[in-house]
Amino acid sequence: MKASQIINWGIIGPGHIAEKFAEDLKRVPGCTLGAVASRSYERAKEFASRFDAPRFYGSYDEIVNDHNVDIVYIATPHNLHCANTLLCLSHGKAVLCEKPFAINLKEAEQMVLSSRKNGVFLMEAFWSRFNPVMQMIKSITDTDELGKIKMLKADFGFKAVYNPEGRVFNPLLGGGSLLDVGVYPLFLASLLLGKPEIIRAAAQLTKSGIDESCGITLKYENGAIAILSSSVVASTESEAQITFENGRIFVPSRWYVPKKAQVIQADRTDRWISEEFEGFGYQFEAMEANRCLRESRIESPLLQHNFSLLLLSTMDEVRKLCGIAYPND
Questions:
Q1: For 133, which of 22, 49, 63, 163 is 20 to 30 Å away at the CA?
Q2: Quick one: what percent of the chain has pLDDT higher than 90?
């Protein structure tokens, strides 16, 4: 793909997250929203009208056969991520797939294998990874500015309206706090600390078998400890704190989409790192996907396939420890 070529995006699953993504896509130069697909023709038509997409479809098969679509953003429920991704990749469509990448590691491995077999770009839509402040935090960690990490704490909890048929509480849709929001604290631990040596976890399960709250402790070979939690029945601080040998980084509420973070040195002096931006913050992952397409990559060097596989592997182990199972398993 030429660097000057306009990249045409498609969206599968025009729900709430897709609305935010489509709005932020307007802020990304060199691309446009070309098509939208839903299992409901009317829903696709309404979404396309609101976000100025010229084409809309009442089936996923139609959008993957649209020759003008270069890449598809998949924002369907968790249980459909694998099937939707495989459909796109088999038709040569690059994919940005919402988190969690898949229900389990087995599905994720199929998705990665298809990407590599077909030579088509695939990336998990983990918007936090491409947030400017998150990139600054990663840089501080990588350069050992504060020494090695000794302790990491992160949480994400919100009180959802109970609907047994809805996305959050329905096991058929991959419901539960771990897959929905617990993946964020696990993402941060995986990004900064890598693969855990020991995993411990406990969860409170609903009658349907999904976790309404989950607590995770990870130990790493270098001695670092991560303490993580998630909930869909209680609003938590949603803060993160990374403690190093010679200081710490505090990321205030909504740490997963930060606009600032406090860097505190061992001598108690501190500074704030920050970057304001317009929109919701989804534009940064779209920019990275565009860059990779123009460079003919099949994965992003900032969020590689193996990272998503590690994340799913860790979640599978947590689910095993907690007794959380899904039909996709």
A1: 22
A2: 97
Residue 222 or residue 1, greater confidence:
222
- Is 139 found in the same domain as 123? no
64 closest CA partner among 40, 82, 91, 103: 91
Phi, psi of 135, deg, nearest 5: -65, -35
Angle CA(26)–CA(135)–CA(246) in degrees, nearest 5? 155
Quick: pLDDT tens for 227-248: 999 999 999 999 999 999 999 9
Domain membership of residue 86 (yes or no) is: yes
The token pair that represents 122 in the structure block: 């695939």
At 328 the pLDDT is 86
**Does the annotation mark 99 as catalytic?**
yes
Of 309, 257, 261, whose CA–CA distance to 278 is shortest?
A: 257
pLDDT band at 5 (very low <50, low <70, confident <90, very high): confident
Distances in whole angstroms, Cα of residue 248 to Cα of each of 156, 178, 272: 20, 26, 12
Number of separate domains in the chain: 2
User: What range does the domain containing 40 cover?
Assistant: 7-127+282-298
Task: Give the Cα-Cα-Cα angle 21, 318, 285 (nearest 5 degrees).
Answer: 20
Mean pLDDT computed over every residue of the chain: 97
Q: Which of 93, 99, 148, 150 is catalytic?
A: 99
